[in-house]
Design goal:
The structure is a single chain. With about 140 residues, this protein is α+β, with helices and mostly antiparallel strands. It has a six-stranded antiparallel β-sheet, with helices on both faces. Helix 1 runs antiparallel to helix 2 and helix 4 packs antiparallel against helix 5. About 35% of the residues are buried.
């Protein structure tokens, strides 16, 4: 299977899980190095997830190990692509387990794309603002 490039991966993530009115602008700014930070800084208090595809992680499953299990049962592979306000993580492809350990409970806005356009995870700044993002294949 060919892996999508950074821009393609981000576009699939945004088109799948961000509300339609915000998609074009977000894709455009993510692609511009000088403007990317503007989008990344919105992630801690991000309100533009499409609620049709966002399922809040249950209170009993708010740890990185439990979230890993939730994602694995939905077919998440070993690695994920990271879009994060934490600059040293942003734009990286990392092992899913390591990425979750780095972001869960850290108060950083982050999107982890597991299967481009199909499965992702969102971590916001507020306690409990954790969502599995999933679109089933047609």
């Amino acid at each position: 299977m060919n892996r999508p490039g950074q821009g393609e991966h981000e576009e699939l993530l945004v088109r799948a899980f961000v509300v339609r009115p915000k998609q074009e602008r977000m894709i455009e700014l993510l692609a511009k190095p000088k403007r990317r930070r503007d989008i990344l800084m919105t992630l801690p208090h991000f309100h533009d997830l499409d609620p049709r595809f966002a399922v809040r992680v249950p209170n009993a499953q708010q740890s990185s190990s439990e979230i890993l299990k939730l994602l694995r049962t939905r077919g998440a592979p070993a690695d994920c692509y990271v879009v994060s306000e934490k600059i040293d993580l942003d734009g990286q492809t990392l092992p899913l387990e390591a990425a979750l350990d780095a972001v869960v409970g850290r108060g950083m806005g982050t999107l982890l794309s597991c299967i481009p356009g199909r499965l992702a995870y969102f971590e916001g700044e507020a306690a409990g603002k954790r969502y599995v993002l999933e679109r089933r294949a047609a």
